[in-house]
Amino acid sequence: MSSKELNRRDFIKLTSAVTGGIMAAGLGIPIVGYLIDPALREDKAGKPVVVGNINDMTEIGKPYPFSFTITKVNGWERTASSYGGFIIRKSDDPKDLAVLSSRCTHLSCRVNWHEESKAFQCPCHDAKFDADGKVLDGPPPEPLGRFEFEVAEDGAITIIPVEVKEG
Amino acid sequence: MQSTLWQKIYAWLDERLGLDNMYTGLLDRPEPLGNWWNTLGSASLFLFLLQGATGIFLTVYYTPSPDHAYDSIQYIMNDVAFGWLVRGIHHWGASFMVMVVFIHMLRVFITGSYKYPRELTWLIGVGLLLMTLGMGFTGYLLPWHQMAYWATTVATQIAGSVPFLGEFILKALRGGPDLSALTLQRFFAAHIWMLPAALAALIGAHLYLIIKHGESAYPDKED
Lengths: 167, 223
Ligand code: HEM
Ligand code: FES
Description:
The complex is a heterodimer. Chain A contains one helix and ten strands.
């Protein structure tokens, strides 16, 4: 075809391609957003939770266990998950505490305090952490996580339920 | 003439797949002089594919359980990006498809295109209409809201008024004497697997016959 004018056949091909392309893009781009939507949501930090009272924790150096549940809304469903940790008084000062998470930093099993060995032990792959959360033995790559906390006038301990890394 | 890389790739594929033959056989067919009414079959096909695509995407979030069906649709509508669009197209497309399929059938009737040798094309078309209605019927229950619940109660009740077999039909549709989780689940299975599969197969046969016989010419004054 040498003439510059469009013949009927090519005109129809062109308009079909253009409208088809617009429709495909008009549907295709929103669909990508639709599919990846949950991946783009931010994890909201939970509200602060009260996990104990300092006046009940008299012994220095002894880990007092606590646990709490957080309800998360995933789509149309609410799931309550429980989390736990330990509060350890480092001195007489009621604000001198370590608030450790009980989630093993290897693969997330729950650690327990063993009085005989003075260590947190993980039942899954035999890891040991000391009373301050440092790794003593086993596969975990880093110390136990911590929670930021506040101690109120009446001794109530409130934490922000997001683990923070040591350091 | 030097052929480009694309031309070489195309020639390689064509030699093995017969693309040129497919093109002339499927698309480059002689057509009688028609008008816009002749495009309604293709429009039905397009709507079927659109419903298929949007329906598949709806199942990413929709849950066919009495506890979650309604909430999952609320979630699609209010929280998921473009969920309103995907569901909107599926929802309105459903009614539109029934309409387009029906008008397509009317035009085939009015132009007398159901006559020899196209009786089977017509018969398959009747199946296509019924299945499209079946898609609407089963899909309507899925949001599991009051309207859906009672519409299905009534419709299955009507099916249950057939003499002798009525009670059996009612129980088979509902998966028991009452509307329950079983009803929702079997309507869902019919809506996304059985009916679409049957529709796709019938559409294939319909199209095969259309290509085989070519499109009918408009009746002229002699007819
Ligand atoms: C392969 C094809 C299809 C799939 C996978 C599919 C899937 C779905 C799903 C998951 C729903 C529930 C979400 C909702 O209610 O909005 C739904 C609803 C619905 N579908 Fe389909 N669908 C298909 C084709 C069709 C066709 C061809 C029709 C109609 C002729 C249809 C009619 C309906 C109707 C009426 C609803 C209820 C819509 C509403 O009330 O929101 N569907 N479909
Ligand atoms: S999960 Fe704790 S040691 Fe592996």
